[in-house]
Amino acid sequence: MARTPGLPILDAATRRACDQVADRLDLEAVDLATCMTSAVIDEVPEYAPYAGPGPRRAIFQHSLDHVRAIVHAIRTWCLPSPAELAFVRERASLRATQQLPLSALLHSYRLGHRTVWERLVQLLEGSDAVLEASLALTALTLAYTERISSVLADGYTERQRHLLLEVDRDRRELLERILRGTFERQSETARLASTFALVPGGDYLVVVLNRQRSETAATGEALTRAAESVRRHFALGVAQPFVVVRHAEIVSIALLARARAAAVAHLTRQTVAELAQAGETWSAGISTVCAGLGEVARGYQEARLATEMTTHGQQVCALFELRVSDYLLTRADQTALRMIPAAARRILESTNRDDRVLVETLLAYVAADLSLARTAERLVVHPNTVSYRLRKLGQRLECDVSRNSNLVEVLTWIRIVEQARTAE
């Protein structure tokens, strides 16, 4: 086998000394693997749960495989190939599945290198070429540790990537099952929901984000960034944020056990504001409270509807914050607009300054709880002026606004006209 580039070239005396060390290591392999195992369990806090007989035996066997790999590397003076390090990649995959931190795993391998190097120093005592063999073996073991660390990190991150994809797939599958509206407590869906901390009887809000209608459709990268932003912000108020990229939108089911509805709305607005600062304009709709996962399908439709009620000035619409009258008026269509009397539409749609003053006076009067004095104070006019404007508006509208039922009707007309103007 060819020598690995980067390893020192050995003379005959150093070669003999290294071969003798390899033979001794082979004889002491079990003892050395035992020392490596103890060092890992005793010095790496994350390995404390592996101190039992079964896990300890597995760590010992893995350490023994490394001792034999090092013995082979010394005898051939060649580092192991990727195929020969398959046992390292498999162990990295296992530890990633067990959610052992990568830093702890790498630390354990560094301890293994330290233990091997200490044993090499002992075995070289009395050798004819102590210095040369020591330098050569140090270079070999460092190169070996560097190679296995690289394989270890690759195997760990690859498995972690697969695990994240599996979790993401399960999350999407769970959302689709819930949105079918057939959720049952004693079902496979309920068991899957529990893995994401979604309690069947909990209270939830559904949040939907999508690009504003005037914007281009979000790309895959934009959706991923936005979803991550939602997760990061929601983590401040929701124990385990459940966020899914679904087609061209982002859907979150927020458990209200820890977060209040107002807090979820606040975190949603922070998310949308952060995305806007990055140049991405998103709209967000938030449902009314869903009593249990069985109502989430309804909440999802509400949240999607709420996104259509957003504007450039108000990019987040939380239905539970709206008055019922505001919600109903927002849903008014062109038929409602045509139902407004022609005379009323002329003045309400007018851009003439005098006409606008009459309408604004009525709105100020309502905002002042029908108090002429407070209305006059707000508009900085005499109360008689307020009375005059209200009478004149009533004449123009052909409707006596001093009557409560007529006043409510006229306010409804104004809101519908304003909504139509905003839509245009």
Summary tags:
single chain, alpha+beta, Globin-like, Alpha-Beta Plaits, 3 domains, 6-stranded mixed beta sheet, 63% helix, 7% strand, rod-shaped
- Average pLDDT confidence is 89
Structural class: alpha+beta
Residue share in β-strands: 5-15%
How many DSSP helices?
A: 17
Tell me how many strands there are: 6
Domains (count): 3
CATH class of the largest domain: Mainly Alpha
Question: What ranges have pLDDT less than 50 throughout 5 or more consecutive residues?
Answer: none
CATH superfamily of the largest domain: Phycocyanins
Per the principal axes of the C-alpha atoms, what is the gross shape?
Answer: rod-shaped
CATH second-level architecture of the largest domain: Orthogonal Bundle
Q: Return the string of H and E elements.
A: HHHHHHHEHEEHEEHEHHHHHHH
CATH fold description of the largest domain: Globin-like
Q: Summarize the main sheet.
A: 6 strands, mixed
Share of residues in helices:
55-70%
Separation, N- and C-terminal Cα atoms = 78 Å
Computed over alpha carbons, the radius of gyration is 36 Å
